[in-house]
Design goal:
Helices cover about 40% and strands about 15% of the residues. By secondary structure, it is of the alpha/beta class. The protein folds into two domains: about 240 residues, Glycogen Phosphorylase B (Rossmann fold, 3-Layer(aba) Sandwich), CATH 3.40.50.2000; about 160 residues, Rossmann fold (3-Layer(aba) Sandwich), CATH 3.40.50.2000.
Amino acid sequence: MKILQINKFFFLKGGSERYFFDLSELLTNKGHQVIVWSTKHPQNFSFPSQELFANYNDFSEKESLFKKLFKAKRIFWNKEAAKKLEKIIKIEKPDVAHLHNISTHFSPSIIFVLKKYNIPIVMTLHDYKLFCPNYKFFSNGEVCYDCLKNKNYNSCLSKKCIKNSLIQSLGGYLEARFQNDFLKITDKIDVFLSPSLFMKRKAIEWGIDKEKIVHLPNFVEKDFGKGVAASDKKLPYFLYFGRLSHEKGVKLLIESFSETKEQLPDWQLKIVGNGPERNKLENLDKEERIEFLGEKKGKELKQIIANANLIVIPSLWPENFPYSVLESFALSKPVIAAKNGGLTELIKDRQTGLLFKPGNKDDLKEKLIWSNDYKKELIQMGKMARKEVLDKCNSEEHYSKLIKIYERIENN
C-alpha cells in the first residue's frame, strides 16, 4: 500500500511529530511505500526531496502589516500548499492519506485536494484543536470546556484564550468558525484516530459520528530502552521532562517539592526541557535540590529517565496521551501524574504509578513523601508499568489495527 503521511513539522517538536516519524518508519519496515509531506523549516531533518514541501509560515517574524495579513490568509486557505500537494498526488498516486497536525501551516485546502482525487483520509486527533481554538481545553489558568459545551467558539473571544490577546483570539475564533461551521471539515475525514478514550468522548460530545472515531493508543517500540540501564547515582531524584509552559504544572511541582525539605532532605528534583516559563520557573526557588538541565534528547534523555526514581507529570490541563508516560514505562519507571484527561487511562494508581488531585499542591506533596518510604514498591511498580505498556501499546498491535483501518476505507 502507498501511504501519504502529512504533518506540518518535519522535526521533533512534540508528541505528534514523534508519532509521525515512528509510524512512517513502522509502515516502511512492514513493506509499505510511505510518502511524507511537511513544511520547509530550518530545523527539518535531512530528507532528499523537500522541494514540494509547503512553505512554513513564521508568525514570529517582524514584518509589515501587509505581509502579516497575507500569512494570516494562508491559515484559512493555503493555495500554495494545495498546489504542491496536488503535484505529489499526481506523481505518487497514494492509496490513503494520514493527517496529523495540519492547522495554521496547511489549512483545510489540502483536505479538499485529497477529496478531489478520491483519496481516503485518516486523521489522528493529537490535540483538541477541532473543539478548542487554543488546542488545550485550558484558559486563564484553569481547565475550560466552554467551546465544547456551547458547540461554538464564542468563549475564545470573551476569555481571550489565545495568548491573552484579543487580536490573536479573534483570529483563532474566525479560523475555527470557517473550518468547522462553513467548510465542515470533520465531514470530509473518513476516520478519526483517538489515542485516548478521553479524546474520543470529547469528539463524540462535539458531534462527530462515533462510528468514525477509532480508539487507537500511541505505541512504543519494545527495544526503546535498549542499551540503557539505571546506573549508580549519589542521590534519589524525581524527574519532570517536557515543555516548560504554564499548563504543564511545573510551578506546582516545584512548590510542592520545596515544602519537602524536612521529609526528603536527600532527594533531588531534576527538570528537563525548555519553554516560555523556563526563566520564571528557575527564579522560583534557588535551593540546591532542584536542577534545571535544559533540553535533552535521544540516549542522553533515556539515561536521565532510567536513573530517576519516579517521573512526575503535574499537568494542570487534560493531557491526551503523552509520550512521556509511554517512554517512562518502557524504561521501567513509575509515574506520578495529575488525575485528569487521558492520564487516568495510562496510569493505574498504586500499580504502575500514583495519581493526585489536579492542581492540589498538598496532595502532590503527600505522594512525593510517600515515595521515600516505599522505594522497593516503586521498583515493582516500574516493572509492572513496563509490562503494561509493552502489552498494550506495542508496535505490532498498533500496526495490525491501523492497517485494517487503511484497508477498510480504501476498499470503501
